[in-house]
Amino acid sequence: MNAQAHYDNHLAAFYAWMTGNFDTKQQEQEAYFSNKHITPTGSAVAIDLGAGHGLQTISLANLGFTVYAVDFNQHLLSELNARAKGMTVRTILANIANAAQYTMNAELITCMGDTLTHLESVQQVNTLLGEWNSILPEGGKLVLSFRDLTQELEKEERFIPVRAEDERIHTCFLEYFPGFVRVFDMLMEKQNGQWIQKVSSYQKLRLGIEQVKIMLSAAGFVVQDHEVIQRMHYLVAVKRKD
């Protein structure tokens, strides 16, 4: 199952619950952007790719951007729209692999929360980095966050508890292959006194941090900042001047 089918048929229904308290997580993202001086300086337009239910989108709108939130899942975009009423936010139902659906005059592109690893191949990542560079003006910024999955977890380490409540438990299981990891999202829910298990899986690319930095440079970016936050790599890259 590809990432879109996995979200449409399984993960989107409990994604907001899985990620935890929205306000807390959103404020963390907004603080990150503020600390890295991600503020409007030109068109004041930002494109948030893989926007989900809006952690980055809401943060960027609060900082003064008009945000185009792109995601392939309507359920998540509907949640985002409900939170963004009255804000300078527009949603676009599209696969981020098709850059023609969101090409516009933007000074900032964000692709965060492991969205980069949802792409189908390293070549697709390379292609998109080049297309994102073409969208941005000189000095425009690209902000990425993703997990480096190149190091294999072993044995019981591959079972990752995500969140648990009295009537709902979410666990991930990882299966490693050359170039990608198969991620199994296992949800246990108590319904009418009975535990019901729902399982679905999809692939994530095993992108290394140094590999991504090299790809960014080849696409015309300079990495301005790199930070690791809760095992997630955060990169701020700037479009090079010709």
Automatic annotation (TrEMBL):
GO MF annotation, one: methyltransferase activity
Keyword check for Transferase: yes
One annotated GO biological process: methylation
Annotated InterPro entries: Methyltransf_25, SAM-dependent_MTases_sf
Coiled-coil positions: none
Xref: CDD domains: AdoMet_MTases
Keywords of the record: Methyltransferase, Transferase
SUPFAM superfamilies per UniProt: S-adenosyl-L-methionine-dependent methyltransferases
Keyword Methyltransferase: yes
A Pfam short name: Methyltransf_25
Record-annotated Methyltransferase domain positions: 47-140
Protein name in UniProt: SAM-dependent methyltransferase
Source species: Chitinophaga cymbidii
Phylogenetic placement of the source organism: Bacteria, Pseudomonadati, Bacteroidota, Chitinophagia, Chitinophagales
